[in-house]
Amino acid sequence: MKRLLLLIPKCPGPAAGKKWNAVWPADVEAAVTHSMWKLITPGPLVLAKLAQEMGRFEVHLTDEAFQPLNLTKKYDIVAIYTVTPNVKRAYELADFYKKQGTYVVLGGVHTTVCPEEAGRHAHTILIGEAESIWTAFLQDFLMHRTRQIYAQPLGKVSMYRSPIPAFHLIPENARKLIPIQTARGCPHGCHFCNLRSLYGRSYRPKKMQNIEKELRAVKQLNPHATIYFTDDNLFCSSTHADALMQLLQQYSVTWYANTDISFGADPVRIRRAYQCGCRQVLIGLESVNMQNLTGLDETSFKRRHFGRYREWIENIQSQGIGVIGSFILGLDGDGTDVFDKTAEFILEANLFGASITVNTPYPGTVQFHELDAQNRICTYDWNCYTIFNPVIQPKKMSIETLNAGYLKVLRAVHSTEAAKRKLEYFKRKIKEAGNDA
Ligand code: SF4
């Protein structure tokens, strides 16, 4: 048996890499860190299962967000998952294992969009969705005939054949919130999102029978786990979402999901979602400045629905489902008034949570190419790409003003008074939703 390690290096997080932002005090840092969902990265669990099915590999998995990496253990292959914020750590580990004589593979989002850079640190790189090329690589490894690059065409992986991830490899301390992906793809094509570079334009759901098997496997692992549906946009296909909710009715689960604001338009669907266990949705609202939303996605979907944001958030939350609104500060339309406006919006809409970040162009996105062409990228040190740390020159303010305004928003949103008001609001809403259900 060959020993294989699937390795997810840690991301620097808000507390690190603050080359461009040294102003956050410890209490704000702690509040932001506390509000983040802590989740194992799901992709390597699928690769683990595929390797186990071959019967020739002893498979190990380490996610540094949950467990320390034991560097004294020896492996035949180390396969490392990369995203831009963790990639420097990934390269450091790849170089370490290479020196030890271990065969090193790099894959994931950053490797897919920066293959030449990643190729300097690995024997083999996997480009694209790795499920369809991983087994071919492993077979070649066993036959001593590996190639430097394994790639698959964009968006061609059939989710119909996707195996049940190796959930049993999730470390004990990461079993409270467990990821299940039921489909890939999103119709909106936001310019700051690298979904299109990874998955192409298609929407690809899994078979409902397979989703049910995943659900059962998760329940077996931890009957009390909350499920996080990591689909890019869970409700963008109403046929798929309705079938999924029908399935979930048969199980007692609490779940969270990513979706877009149009979920708030249909009170009947919201009610069904609540009744089958939905308690939080993460929605990319992006900005309270309408000017930013024009052209932010391919059809200006977000601008077209901007006028309904408050009403639809209220529709969702009044049924007992908390909305985590995601916002980007420092977009090109933002002047210094954006900070007060953002804080006001979050507080007045009684958002259950807010993920507030600064405009960060990830490599592989339309936005990265545009800002690069405008010479506005201040650093290519990927450790700074935490989304909490300005890495570009904003159009209408200095980096210092952006940092100070960002801190002001965080302080307002995370204040004790705001938390108290929100708690009262939700107690009332949950009670009302429970009475009506
Ligand atoms: S709505 Fe979300 S998932 Fe869809 S393209 Fe935009 S950022 Fe990406």
How would you explain this protein's 3D organization?
- By secondary structure, this protein is α/β, with parallel strands linked by helices.
- It has a domain of 150 residues: Cobalamin-binding domain (Rossmann fold).
- Helix content is 39%, strand content 17%.
- It contains 17 helices and 14 strands.
- Strands 2-1-3-4-5-6 form a 6-stranded parallel β-sheet, with helices on both faces. A 6-stranded parallel β-sheet has the order 7-10-11-12-13-14. A two-stranded antiparallel ribbon has the order 8-9.
- Helix 6 links the parallel strand 5 and strand 6.
- Helix 14 runs parallel beside helix 16.
- The protein is globular and about 60 Å long.
- 43% of the residues are buried.
- The model has no long low-confidence stretch (mean pLDDT 93).
- The site of iron/sulfur cluster has 11 residues, from loops.
